[in-house]
Specification:
The chain has 171 residues and is an all-alpha fold. Helix content is 78%, strand content 0%. The mean pLDDT is 87.
């Protein structure tokens, strides 16, 4: 299935999408490209808000704001997300230690987080447009909270599949 279709399906049935991604085995190259695509799209989602901020406060030009956001999203965020995925796996392992045969691993937890980040990018792009056109306020805050709730729901469903369900056998 295409990535765009998987992203759309993740908003309705994230567990099914995660099962399909994990059925082919956990591969670090897939996890890394998923994370980098998510970080790139999250960087693009910040552009309208950064442009508005540069217009309202020209002391810091747009190119400086974009450079800082690029540095943060493509170089600082990935190690933070790797650490967050490892922490989520350790917490899930501690919570489900009594469940015999819980198959989850660090790679599956990474894929769950990275896929949830990529799946929520359409909402982040919408939130970025709202921040750019409307500016700070209750509408932008509300949109951000909806996107955060969607991310947590998708990540939770993906992490549950990654930690508790054995991967399907591949032919």
């Amino acid at each position: 299935m295409s990535v765009v279709r998987d992203i759309a399906l993740s908003w309705r049935a994230p567990g099914a999408v995660m099962r399909r991604h994990l059925a082919g085995g956990v591969r670090e190259d897939r996890a890394l490209i998923t994370l980098m695509a998510a970080c790139l799209l999250l960087f693009v989602a910040q552009w309208p808000g950064l442009a508005r901020a540069a217009f309202e406060n020209p002391e810091v030009p747009l190119d400086a704001r974009l450079a800082g956001a690029l540095m943060a999203m493509l170089f600082v965020a990935p190690p933070v997300f790797y650490a967050l995925a490892a922490l989520s796996h350790l917490i899930a392992r501690a919570m489900f230690a009594r469940r015999a045969g819980a198959p989850g691993g660090f790679g599956a937890a990474r894929m769950a987080l990275f896929w949830a980040l990529l799946a929520v990018t359409p909402g982040a792009l919408l939130q970025g447009l709202v921040a750019g056109f409307v500016g700070p306020g209750p509408v932008a805050t509300g949109t951000g909270l909806v996107v955060l709730a969607a991310f947590l729901a998708i990540w939770g469903a993906c992490l549950r599949v990654a930690e508790l369900e054995p991967p399907a056998a591949t032919p």
